[in-house]
Design brief:
The chain has 143 residues and is mainly alpha-helical. The protein has 7 helices and no strands. It is globular, with a radius of gyration of 15 Å. The mean pLDDT is 89. Keywords: Cytoplasm, Nucleus, Protein transport, Signal, Transport.
Length: 143
């Protein structure tokens, strides 16, 4: 039980970090604060950090029995919002890793994932993404 709680705390921390980056660097209208600039510099020194975290979260959603998609959907959406190219690259990588007979179905699941999701981290948008992610997982896992 303790490790599951720790896992959800990690997901929440990743969401906070990615949401801060999105709101202050990616989508920020005002000049970034010194804290945002420091974060951007650190992330720039580790360019694979956000893509690797996003990949790990998707692998949990797709292949493991993660009971609480809500907790995972938050950081996934925040990371997708940071870079749509990162998400597109990850999608291609995940599709290529699947057997040919699974690729078409998974591609269709990915197509539906961002339906009616806007480029924001507003609560309604997050809820819509969570619903889509739950459907994504269910549709892919249904044989």
């Amino acid at each position: 039980m303790r490790s599951i709680f720790f896992f959800w705390q990690c997901a929440s921390a990743i969401d906070s970090l990615a949401a801060f980056y999105f709101n202050n660097i990616t989508a920020g209208d005002n000049p970034p604060s010194p804290a945002a600039l420091n974060l951007a510099r650190h992330i720039g020194e580790l360019p694979s950090l956000f893509p690797q975290i996003l990949k790990s979260l998707f692998e949990i959603i797709i292949f493991e029995d993660a009971g609480n998609q809500w907790s995972l959907s938050r950081p996934i959406l925040s990371l997708i919002m940071i870079s749509e190219q990162m998400f597109s690259d990850l999608r291609a990588q995940i599709l290529a890793s699947q057997p040919l007979d699974q690729q078409q179905r998974l591609s269709q699941c990915f197509d539906k994932l961002m339906t009616d999701v806007t480029r924001s981290l507003e609560p309604k948008n997050r809820d819509r993404f969570t619903q889509n992610l739950t459907t994504f997982r269910h549709d892919f896992r249904a044989k």
